[in-house]
Structure to design on (242 residues):
């Protein structure tokens, strides 16, 4: 494993560029302060350098609520734990002590959306992890189709895209009038479950007319996994621990 100094003391660190993108984002972004010590530990276990967007985000931010909280991007544990936004280490079940032999299951979960969608960095070949895409590519578990899709971009391009307003087109057909008021103040470990469920035709006939309930994100992810198993006997794999 590379030492922490090798990961942090790099030429051309990404934070000046990423920090500017966060400040100039086309959508509202709330950026909790990072817990520096736990952020450094997470960086060491992840083994990415501060030259990358992922390393810079881990080191300098306590995560982010993007687009009025519709999307939660995970960084270091937030200092003081405001709004219960978990860190990347918790979401991916990092070991308590840095372990050079530990690897995340399938890939690294880097974000959840309020509907239970999961953004992950693909961690191996399709044969190895059962996911689409290539190693290092972003993949998305969609709550309306209950399947994984490859996004054709890496973490840095994906994060820049979200900050530039890409979520508006990406979630077209999955948002309803007044969604911002329902989402804006939710804690980072909470999501929305819909009835009729989002994967049903009935929900899309009148999305605004669905019944929506705030639930723990862990409950929402568990329901999605259980539904996948019941429908086609396929397990979508690890969706994150929140």
């Amino acid at each position: 494993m590379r030492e922490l100094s090798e990961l942090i003391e790099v030429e051309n660190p990404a934070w000046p560029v990423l920090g500017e993108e966060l400040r100039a984002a086309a959508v509202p972004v709330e950026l909790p302060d990072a817990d520096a010590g736990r952020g450094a530990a997470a960086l060491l276990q992840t083994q990415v350098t501060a030259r990358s967007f992922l390393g810079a985000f881990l080191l300098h931010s306590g995560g982010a609520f993007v687009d009025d909280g519709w999307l939660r991007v995970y960084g270091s544990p937030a200092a003081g734990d405001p709004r219960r936004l978990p860190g990347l280490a918790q979401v991916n079940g990092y070991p308590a002590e840095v372990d050079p032999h530990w690897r995340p299951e399938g890939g690294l979960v880097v974000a959840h959306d309020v509907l239970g969608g999961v953004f992950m960095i693909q961690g191996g070949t399709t044969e190895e992890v059962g996911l689409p895409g290539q190693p290092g590519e972003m993949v998305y578990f969609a709550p309306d189709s209950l399947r994984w899709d490859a996004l054709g971009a890496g973490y840095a391009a994906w994060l820049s895209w979200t900050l530039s307003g890409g979520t508006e087109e990406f979630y077209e057909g999955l948002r309803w009038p007044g969604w911002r008021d329902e989402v804006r103040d939710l804690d980072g470990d909470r999501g929305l479950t819909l009835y009729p469920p989002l994967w049903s035709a009935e929900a899309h006939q009148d999305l605004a007319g669905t019944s929506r309930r705030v639930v723990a994100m862990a409950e929402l992810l568990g329901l999605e996994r259980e539904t996948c198993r019941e429908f086609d006997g396929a397990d979508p794999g690890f969706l994150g621990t929140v």
In short: The CA atoms of residues 229 and 235 lie 6 Å apart. Residues 4-232 form one domain. The mean pLDDT is 94. DSSP finds eleven helices and nine strands in the chain.
